[in-house]
Design brief:
Blueprint lengths: L1 H19 L32 E5 L6 H9 L3 E9 H4 E3 L2 E2 L2 H10 L5 E7 L1 E3 L20 E3 L3 E4 L4 H18 L5 E6 L15 H18 L4 E5 L9 H14 L3 E4 L13 H5 L5 E5 L1 H4 L8 H10 L5 E4 L6 H10 L4
Parallel strand pairs: 1-2, 1-13, 2-5, 5-9, 9-10, 10-11, 11-12, 12-13
Antiparallel strand pairs: 3-4, 6-8, 7-8
Helix pairs in contact: 5-6, 6-7
Length: 338
């Protein structure tokens, strides 16, 4: 109930602010803002976490096991679920959000919250074409690219980016004021080995990511929104490209995050987190492979402490992994507040 009231007041604030500043108008159904291509409005409300804390990554949706885990652990605030672009847009401009609606319906009676990740890539251990069929045409330069380990939407192609942002807009229209819809996040910025992508353009990719932060801000003015930034390949410094995207995300009130916690690996985006900690929401996943970097030398407390002290996150999404599930739950219960 509190999160619902918070969202309503946030919406009223934005409406009253824009009304009071009548000289400022926003474009409608376009990818650019009035005064700057990548900035929605200097008065955009920054939505900080309403239900921060620990979330469980539910790979297969809201199963009975997940429900029991949520019931038995009041410290867990909700779940993070991946929804594939190809499943959400069944034909151009025709969307099927029934799975999201169903998952929300299961979470509401539990007073738990949903973080939605929109995935536009797949990996060789579970390969599938990640974009809708209509994008796999010359108009969209084929729509996706195949690398050595993944298939990925051609995020650097403007026509593909326009369609991805249309999906974000449609999601915002339906879920922005839902009190159990906690956050929306995008897939990691890493693309895989670009030697397989003949039309890849680093500058255009950065531009498209900036357009996406604008789209998230416009579509979800009352909801936490996060872009997962970890790597941007191609010409120029990786750090400078990431910094540019993060800077525009900050102005737009969009947080950043990442798919991994590696205390012993230097991820290029890690230096950005402390600079943004007081300005936008920060989020991270802790995936299966991350445990291999601390076991048997460390434990889940080490992963948590790194995420909190070095990355300053307000959301941690844990992947429950046998035989470490109980370790994870122990850490969550030991440190209930982020």
């Amino acid at each position: 109930m509190l999160s619902y009231i918070y969202k309503i007041f946030a919406l009223l604030f934005i409406v009253s602010t824009l009304t009071a500043c009548g000289s400022t108008t926003l474009t409608k159904n376009k990818d650019v803002a009035v005064n700057n291509d990548f900035v929605i409005n200097s008065r955009t409300a920054i939505i900080m976490p309403t239900n921060p804390g620990h979330y469980i990554i539910a790979t297969h949706g809201v199963t009975d096991t997940i429900i029991n885990t949520l019931i038995d652990n009041p410290t867990i605030r909700g779940i993070s679920i991946v929804y594939n672009w190809v499943d959400l847009e069944i034909s151009k401009g025709v969307y099927d959000f029934s799975r999201i609606e169903s998952d929300l319906a299961l979470l509401r009676p539990l007073n738990k919250h949903l973080i939605v990740m929109i995935r536009d890539k797949s990996f060789k251990n579970n390969p599938f074409i990640p974009v809708p069929e209509y994008l796999r045409t010359a108009e969209y330069q084929g729509g996706y690219a195949t690398g050595d380990h993944e298939m990925i939407a051609k995020r650097w192609v403007h026509s593909v980016g326009i369609r991805f942002r249309a999906l974000i807009t449609a999601l915002g229209n339906q879920f922005d004021l839902d009190p159990n819809f906690e956050a929306i996040k995008t897939s990691e910025s890493a693309t895989g080995n670009i030697k397989y992508f003949s039309d890849y353009d680093a500058t255009q990719y950065v531009n498209e990511l900036n357009f996406t932060s604008y789209a998230l801000a416009k579509a979800f003015p009352n909801t936490v929104k996060v872009m997962y930034l970890n790597w941007i390949p191609g010409s120029g410094s990786i750090e400078s490209k990431l910094s540019e995207v993060a800077a525009y995300a900050k102005v737009n009130g969009v947080g950043i995050g990442g798919p991994d916690v590696h205390p012993d690996v230097k991820i290029p985006s890690y230096d950005l987190y402390p600079t943004l900690a007081n300005d936008v929401p920060l989020m991270t996943d802790i995936q299966w492979s991350n445990f291999e970097h601390v076991f048997p030398q460390g434990d889940t407390d080490q992963l948590f402490n790194f995420a909190l002290s070095e990355l300053h996150v307000s959301y941690i999404c844990w992947k429950l992994r046998s035989p470490y599930t109980q370790n994870i739950l122990n850490t969550i219960n030991k440190y209930p507040v982020l």
